[in-house]
């Protein structure tokens, strides 16, 4: 009785080693009928928060099935390995209970049932405890795809006990919103935790303050609409404001990284009619 | 009525973010029967020309089906999104009309029919217009694989109006040919836009001039036949001359990058019997 | 008569170029029923030994079928292209006869039959001899998956003539074992060619000497059990000791690279009660 035919797979394993390939070999051996969709394996090493955000950005687009997600610096310690069912069984998340799954699970409607992956019958025996994706998570995902009932994989745990994720909140200060860079993508776009429902920026300009600098940004609809040499504010494909340049890496050029605080103010700041740079440390840019 | 069971997929999305995985999730959701073959996602960001060359190098090896190709710095602007049918329907290219598809389409026999992807019924609704691979191109590819007729996806466009690609031409000057580095691959081989039909170099040596340097190169059949310390000229797997070293990155060591002009002359240059280096700027090498 | 439905694929092609995608397109065209599992394409360019180790680490987890492995600096020269059958036909390795396959073949029980891939009927015609994965190895893998008998692909070769792999041996000197870093993974763990059967380190500390330094390492069961600021010794998922930090790259911080000699001694060295660093060159750390 096959239950799922897609296993979506996200990790921080990178592509230099064979970690991804070995896990996929285990999936192929145990559940040959299932198709594996690699979501991303480029999550920065050990970065649970970045993996959690990538998973949350993806979740509404995933095919129904098992979602195997492994960013697991605590592998082999007493952090729990879990499987979490959502949406009446349309999806099951498999991974460490360290906050990685929390955002995506919430976006999928919340955890409905969960088990700790403690049943050794559904695990591989290994000489060391450092590769749970191969020995515990991968086999669990494959067995779920094969139709093994969730509660066969281990004891039921209270869904309220699952570790929550932590997302930075914005803060309104007068006309401005204090937000934070959530994600810098390959193109150097710096996504903020700010959406148009919270701060409407219909057209014209906004003023950005970060790292001692003040920059005027133009609100446009597409990266290619940003005039050369100007900073753009684009609502990206996830509905969040992104600080962008046309065909250049805004984050690199502006010194924005994940976690940088950015204060957004609608309109031009009183004294700012052209881009200026104020640095508290007096160094030139 | 399934029409295609393979979707070949090339992009400049890289592997750090989940862009590739999200598009493949969309393909999996809409056309679960189709197998996706990732051609490459390592095209340099925004580099339409590099993507076009990679696609052209690959096209004769692709399985029949849909070819989804996205290097799209103009996403969300008024550049057209298109689907282009070739070879009596054996293949359909889906991507932006920015020259990316042109070389491969020509190698596949030329565009026979084309549509602009304007029908919203075959697109995903999204809060921002920055991820057309997910919202427009990917769904179009999936629906084509499912058998949706080409002209359902949008209005027919004149194939003569599709943006052509631009490939650098060589130039003969006396005994020499002035060419250009088209591609530097992972191993540091520098492929030239020069093939043996244009300049026969049967054996022995040729003289290369570039960046103020002159180098003697040995014409050999395989990288491993290049003597240690010498520059080799190999006809590569695409039938073009490549400047190579044995087990070392010729491009890095010689300072060759995409676009470097290289003048090739058969035989040893009169005054050159051992590799010498002449630099116009007088700096040592 | 289909024989294999999985082709596992390892190479040093990287992900920047379309090499992997072209080979997979050839596999898809010739053997559309087969699923390709990418084991890794991140083997360092030209590094046969690293590829051999990655393949050996993976082999026990592979699905039955064809294993296509290409790290092939001698492509186009007279090194042989081979297919090697193991385990009563449960698996067939396809690749260059340069030592790449040797370790994995041995772990799979040893070569039972082998052929040189010399039959041009099962190869693609190409203008240059530099891409054997596309023109020779890939087609051979696909035809084997399709049920073509091994000895159709070329003449039988004596399995004893296949090039062996070379693995570094450890050396016991009194209480210590002289070993070597085999692999540095993405997380900076430095795997040694040393397992608990050779040197039991049940708990407490061991002393490591390398590159003129001496470091105390704590024997723990998981990376997350290594106290902050200490060096850990963990039995990794392959059963070998690994020098690790908690959530940090031990190899980078300790200056360990593949091939570094490490002398392991059980217990604290007499004069060492806290981590100290002795460098023969007198330079600070």
Quickly describe the structure.
By secondary structure, the first copy, chain A, is an alpha+beta fold. Helices cover 17% and strands 27% of the residues of chain A. In chain A, the strands form two sheets. In chain A, strands 8-9-13-12-11-10-14 form a seven-stranded mixed barrel. A six-stranded mixed beta sheet of chain A has the order 2-1-3-5-4-6, sandwiched between helices.
Which residue ranges of chain A are poorly predicted, with pLDDT under 50 across at least 5 consecutive positions?
272-285
Instruction: Estimate the helix proportion of chain A, in percent.
Output: 10-25%
Principal-axis shape of chain A equals elongated
What is the spatial order of strands in the main beta sheet of chain A? 8-9-13-12-11-10-14
Per DSSP E runs of 2 or more residues, the count of β-strands of chain A stands at: 14
Oligomeric state as shown? homotrimer
Strand proportion of chain A, as a percent range, falls in 25-35%
* SSE string of chain A: EHEHEEEHEHEEEEEEEHE
Largest interface: A-B, 36 and 32 residues
Radius of gyration of chain A in whole Å, from Cα? 22 Å
Structural class based on helices, strands and sheet pairing of chain A: alpha+beta
Overall pLDDT of chain A: 93
Span between N and C termini of chain A? 63 Å
Count of DSSP helices of chain A? 5
Profile the largest sheet of chain A.
7 strands, mixed, barrel
